[in-house]
Design goal:
The protein has about 450 residues and is α+β, with helices and mostly antiparallel strands. Strand 7 and strand 8 form a beta hairpin. The chain contains eleven helices and twelve strands. The strands form three sheets. Strands 6, 7, 8, 9, 10 and 11 form a six-stranded antiparallel beta sheet that branches. It has a four-stranded antiparallel beta sheet with strand order 1-2-4-3. A two-stranded parallel ribbon has the order 5-12. It has three domains: about 110 residues, Alpha-Beta Plaits (2-Layer Sandwich), CATH 3.30.70.1050; about 200 residues, Trigger factor, domain 2; about 110 residues, Chitinase A, domain 3 (Roll), CATH 3.10.50.
């Protein structure tokens, strides 16, 4: 057998293989000899069927079977001799298969990427610097106060004012008529700035049961949801607006408790002083966690940028589709990729979504391969203690008993492998951090997440 390897595209190779004539002839001869002996045709004794009749009925199919077997056998042999390790088989094409002739075919494969020489020591990352000030603490205390507020209904004749909690039922208007869809319900905290300003303004001075129409600028591609959800700011888009019809179904007032020892005890602290210290620790911990993640992201970005290499096309495509599927689940689109009726400027369809997610997919795959090779270079292994630590973290995060999580993971090998890979990647990034150079930088006041007050 002779073969040669040809580079077709990045990570795509063609194996051009030629099987000698004598091998082909011998394999066909053996196959036909067996066929002549075993073929049963009415009117003839076994082994006495004329060869011409056997050839006419079964010859073409037999030749096809023999050629497929020859292709399979010599393809495997060529892979072994060439030391190629396909990540995907792309099929083959027979280029010559005439009677009494050698067999020639070309098999295409995708191969795993070839990484360049690694350079991952001395990467520069900012130092961890967290300074929780009084202003940050006051924000957290206000969140606690709001969470413990008591909501009570206003009398039916009350007119909406700043500070009220208003429930609305809304539906989009198209050419002056309600859209053919069910009305949606939303709660507006008037004056908090967490809902589109046009909606809050339209509600002021109105009463329960009243209906009002409001124009809202069309959302941008970065924020496609037109539902005026809590915490959503809808940017302006000159000349492009959406009209909604809103009906006030309920108006309530929220009474906030004083920030004192009683509130602290409701939050399971001994005193206001203890609650302030507890919140300060939570804010500090979460700010450090966010900065630590920022360090890791920066490290990975630097490692990927420093090691250019090609990726198998099918692997990139699979990662893109995984990203699209994840985004569609999070956005509640049910897997649809058609144009959103409220946001026609958004990328839609396979080509547009593919283009949008391709850079992210390539970055993620390159990070995966690089971290895997760095882990091998640094002899980073996952120990039983590493696994226990992750299970314990998931226990506190998800609220499940440790034994329950361990049993679930043990029964699901795919899940177990994902967790082991997750642990290895984290340990590898920690190793990169230990080899990095740190520099001081100006750190802004950490954003106070709502969970910090939980």
């Amino acid at each position: 057998m002779k073969f040669e390897i040809e580079e077709v595209a990045p990570c795509v190779k063609a194996l051009k293989i030629e099987v000698p004539r004598d091998v082909v002839v011998e394999r066909l001869s053996l196959a036909f000899a067996h066929l002549y002996k075993t073929t049963h045709i009415a009117g003839f004794r076994p082994g006495k069927v004329p060869r011409a009749l056997v050839d006419k009925r079964y010859g073409a199919a037999l030749r096809g079977d023999v050629l497929r077997d020859l292709v399979s056998d010599h393809y495997i042999q060529a892979l072994d001799e060439s030391n190629l390790h396909p990540s995907k088989h792309l099929g083959y094409e027979i280029t010559r298969a005439e009677a009494d002739s050698s067999l020639s075919f070309t098999a295409k494969i995708e191969v795993m990427p070839t990484l360049p020489e690694l350079h991952y020591t001395g990467l520069r990352v900012p130092s961890l610097t967290v300074n929780v000030g009084e202003a940050d603490l006051e924000v957290a205390l206000t969140q606690v106060q709001n969470r413990n507020g008591v909501v009570e209904p206003w009398p039916d004749d009350h007119q909406v004012a700043t500070g009220d909690v208003v429930t609305i039922s809304y539906i989009e208007m198209i050419e002056g008529k309600p859209a053919p869809a069910e009305a949606q319900t939303h709660t507006v905290h008037v004056g908090k700035g967490t809902t589109a300003e046009a909606i809050e303004s339209a509600l002021l001075g109105k009463g329960k049961g009243e209906t009002v129409e409001v124009d809202i600028p069309r959302p941008s591609a970065a924020n496609p949801d037109v539902v005026p959800s809590e915490g959503t700011e809808i940017p302006s888009a000159a000349g492009k607006v959406l009209r909604f019809s809103m009906t006030i179904t309920n108006v309530q007032k929220k009474t906030l408790p004083p920030i004192d020892d009683d509130l602290a005890r409701d939050e399971e602290y001994d005193s206001l002083v203890a609650m302030r210290e507890g919140l300060r620790q939570k804010i500090t911990t979460q700010a450090k966690r966010r900065q630590r993640q920022a360090q890791k992201d920066l490290l990975i970005d630097q490692v990927v940028a420093a090691h250019p290499f090609d990726l198998p096309p099918s692997m990139v495509d699979a990662e893109i589709h995984a990203l699209i599927e994840q985004a569609e689940k999070e956005n509640g689109s049910g897997g649809r990729t058609e144009e959103h009726q409220h946001a026609p400027d958004l990328p839609h369809g396979h080509d547009a979504l593919h283009q949008k997610y391709e850079p992210v997919a390539r970055h993620r795959l390159k990070a995966y391969f690089l971290l895997l090779v760095i882990a091998q270079t640094e002899n980073i292994e996952v120990t039983e203690q590493d696994f226990d630590d992750l299970i314990h973290y998931r226990e506190t995060e998800m609220g499940f008993p440790m034994d329950t999580i361990r049993n679930l993971v043990t029964q699901d090998k795919e899940w177990q492998n994902r967790l082991m890979l997750e642990i290895q990647e984290e340990k590898t990034i920690d190793r990169l951090l230990s080899l990095a150079q740190f520099y001081d930088t100006v750190v802004t006041t950490p954003e106070i997440p709502a969970v910090a007050t939980a």
